[in-house]
Design brief:
Length: 174
């Protein structure tokens, strides 16, 4: 979770390189669809030096495995270059409901991770996306990399702040 202007903001994605001459920018690492991005519409951009700026989404389109976005006032390549390598942030309340049995990454980070018998393994520090399934980085007495597969991930209780897992045999010995 990111902080900005005293309000809690969540990371929607990272602005990548420019595409073409009309101000299109690659949006990397976003799990939102073009329609969901359009529904949010107003974002906070945070640059690498920490400066922030409000941006209004002008257009978004999917191309191959990424999305291309254009923001009002940044409709040419030179202006768009100012936003490259910044983070795109939004208010949590602006984000669409992820649906039943689904949670955003920002909702999971920091939750306690327990085994089915109630043993505390630590807290979820990060989620590494992979081609097959995400890997949970759990920090406690030691760091564990836990595959978030249906066989391992048994329950997520956002209200209680607990993730319950069934560790594969030998995972703690690695």
């Amino acid at each position: 979770m990111a902080r900005g202007s005293g309000l809690s903001l969540v990371r929607v994605g990272r602005i990548g390189r420019t595409h073409g001459l009309r101000g299109e920018l690659a949006l990397d690492g976003s799990s939102l669809t073009p329609a969901e991005l359009e529904a949010v519409r107003v974002f906070t951009w945070r640059g690498r030096a920490g400066g922030t700026q409000l941006l209004t989404l002008e257009s978004v389109r999917a191309i191959h495995s990424r999305m291309l976005v254009v923001f009002a006032g940044f409709g040419d390549r030179d202006r768009a270059l100012e936003l490259v390598r910044g983070e795109l942030l939004a208010q949590p309340g602006q984000l669409p409901d992820p649906g039943p049995d689904v949670a955003y990454t920002f909702q999971l980070i920091g939750l306690a991770v327990h085994t089915e018998d109630g043993r505390l393994l630590g807290n979820l520090a990060d989620i590494i996306p992979t081609g097959a399934h995400p890997v949970y980085v759990v920090t406690g007495e030691r760091e564990l990399l836990i595959p978030a597969t249906p066989e391992v991930l048994k329950r997520v209780d956002l209200a209680a702040g607990v993730i319950t897992v069934a560790l594969p045999p030998g995972l703690e010995e690695i």
